[in-house]
Amino acid sequence: MKMIFAGAAMNVTGSKHLIEVNGKRLLLDCGLFQGHRKNSEILNRNFPFAAHMIDAVVLSHAHIDHAGLLPLLVKNGFTGQIFCTHATRDLCSIMLPDSAYIQEKDFEWLREKEKAVVGAPLYTIADATRAMTHFRSVAYGQSFSPVDGVKVRFMEAGHVLGSALVELEIDDRDTGHHVRLGFTGDLGRADLPILNDPGQLENLDIFISESTYGNRLHDDLIEIEDDVAKEINEVHARGGKIIIPAFAVGRTQEVLYVLRQLILKGKIPAIPTFVDSPLAQKATDIFRIHPEIFDAEMALMLQSGKDPFCDGCDGVQFTRSLEESKSLNHFPGSCIIISASGMCEAGRIRHHLKNHITDPNNMVLVVGFMAQNTLGRNIVEKKNPIKIFGDEFALNATVANFRAFSGHADQTGLLNFSSKVGSPSDMFLVHGELEPMMTYKAELQKRDNLHKTEITIPKPGQIFELGQDKKLHKLNYENEVASTYCDLLECELPMDVPPTTSV
Question: Each residue of 343-384: pLDDT tens digit?
Fold first, then answer.
C-alpha cells in the first residue's frame, strides 16, 4: 500500500490524498486550490494524477477546496464512482455547477481584459453536470467497498451539512496486513448550532488529520454574542452597512441562525439583512430537506416556528437577480449583506467590498478562516490599499474578526479528538499552514496515546509505503508533482528517486 499527498499538504486548499492498494487507486477528496489567481490556476490545471488510472473517489464533504476539481477529474478521463453522504451529494449538485459558472465567467473576464488569453475554462457547467452522474451516496454508518480490499464507513464530522469522518478498513495483500485508516476531512466543533456534534474515529493504525487551527483557540459562540451585537449596533447607529463574507454552504446558515438568536434575545434590532448569493439560497433549501442532521436545539427552534432561514422574517431577504444585488449599493440606511465567497476570491462579495470598504461608516465582519494570498486575508490583515478586480481601494471601513464562527475544531478540539483515536503507528498532518501544524505537532507529541506515533507533515508529492513492520516509510524521491506544487506553494522539495507510474 502506498499513500501520496498531493493537495492540502503544507497548505489549506486543494485536498487530495491518493491510496494505492491491491492494484487499485482510491482518491480521498479532489479539491480545488484557492488563493493567488495565477498560482492557483497552474496548480489546478496541473492535475497530479492520471485521471483514468483512479478507480474511485471518497469525498469527505462538499466544500470546493475538497470537491471542486471533481469536474476536471471526470473531464480528464475518470470513469469510476464518487462516494459521499446523501447531503454532500445534494450540495455538490449545486456547488459544482456554481464553481463551473465562476470558472467560465472568470475566463471570459480574463480574456476580455488581457486579449491574448487562449485555451478554455478549467471546466464548464456541462463538465460539472457530467461529474454528478458518477456520485453514489451512502448513509452515515453504512459500510461500503469503493475498491477491492477496502471497506469504508462515514461518521458525522460536524463541519458542514453532510460532512464526514472517513474510516477505512484496508486488507493490504502485498504485506498481508489489515490496516485501520482514519481521515478527518475537516473536523467540526462540538456544541455549534444547527449540526450534530462530530463522531469519533477509534483504534486507528494510520491517521490523517486536518490541522487548520492547530495553534489557535476559538471563542465560544455564546460567550461572544454581546461582542458581535455591540459591533453590529455601533455600525447600525451610524447608518453604515455590515458586509459579511461567508461561505454559501454552512457559514451563511450559521450566521443567519446567530442573527436570529440575537434578535430573539433583544440584543440587536431586526436590521434589514440580505443574503446575496444564489448558491446560498439553494444551499439553504437543501438544509431544509435534511432535518436528520440538525441538532436538538435547531430541531426545537424549528418546531417552535422560529425558522432562522425564513425568507421575509425579521428583515431577512434572499436576493435572486443581479439587479437586486446591484440595488444594494444604493440601499438607504443601515443593512447587513451576507455574500459569497467566504474568502472573497469569487462571487458577488467582491463587488460589495469594492463598493463599500472605502466608507468608514461601514464594517467588514469576518466570520471564517482566510487562507494566505486571498483577498479575505488581506482585509483581515488590514493591508492598505486593497486590490479588487485589479484596482486599488482604500480600506477605510472597520474590520471585525470573530473566530467563534469557525466550523473547524480549534487546537483543543483537535487534541481531544486525537487523544481518542488509539495509538496509530503513523499520523499525518494536512490542511494547515506550516506554523499551526508545527505547533500542533509539538502538542500531539505530549499525548500519552501518541508517544510512539510517527507524526509527519507531508510535503506536496511525497509518497509513503506500508512496510512489513506495519509502518509507513517515506519513499525519498523528487517528482514532477512535488516540483510544480512546491515551487508555487513555497515549500522545500523532498529529495528523491524516480517517481512511480501513479504520479
Answer: 888 889 999 999 999 999 999 999 987 877 889 899 999 999
Q: Is the pLDDT of residue 479 over 60?
A: no
| Residue 298 placed within a domain | yes
How does pLDDT run across 257-296, given as a tens digit for each residue?
Answer: 999 999 999 999 999 999 999 899 999 999 989 988 899 8
- Domain identity same for 189 and 278: no
Supply angle C-alpha 85, 89, 92, rounded to 5.
Answer: 135
> Same domain, yes or no, for 193 and 268?
no
Contact 183, 217 (CB under 8 A): no
Please state, in angstroms and rounded to a whole number, the distance separating the CA atoms of residues 400 and 397.
10
Residues 249 and 303 in one domain: yes
Q: CA-CA distances (angstroms) from residue 72 to 45, 89, 150, 249, 297?
A: 9, 17, 25, 21, 39
Q: Label residue 501 by pLDDT band (50, 70, 90).
A: very low
Residue with cell 484496508: 170
Domain assignment of residue 378, given as a range: 225-405
| DSSP letter, residue 125 | H
CA dist 5 and 79 (Å) reads 22
Structure letter (DSSP) for residue 404: G
Whether residue 353 contacts residue 346, with contact meaning beta carbons closer than 8 Å, is answered with: no
Q: In this structure, are 41 and 100 located in the same domain?
A: yes
Output helix, strand, coil percentages for the chain, rounded to the nearest 5: 35, 20, 45
Q: Measured between alpha carbons, how far is 402 from 404 in angstroms, rounded to an integer? A: 5
User: In this predicted structure, what is the pLDDT of residue 497?
Assistant: 30
Q: How many domains does the structure of the chain reveal?
A: 2
3-class DSSP assignment, residue 259:
helix
Instruction: Please report whether residue 499 resides in a domain.
Output: no
Q: What is the pLDDT of residues 37-86, one digit of tens each?
A: 777 888 898 888 899 999 999 999 999 999 999 999 999 999 999 999 99
Alpha carbons 244 and 330: distance in angstroms, whole number: 17
- Does the structure show a pLDDT above 60 at 439? yes
- 478 pLDDT exceeds 60? no
CB 177 within 8 A of CB 471: no
Q: Which three-class secondary structure state does DSSP give residue 13?
A: coil
- Are residues 152 and 75 in contact, defined by beta-carbon separation less than 8 angstroms? no
Do 230 and 303 sit in the same domain of this protein? Answer: yes
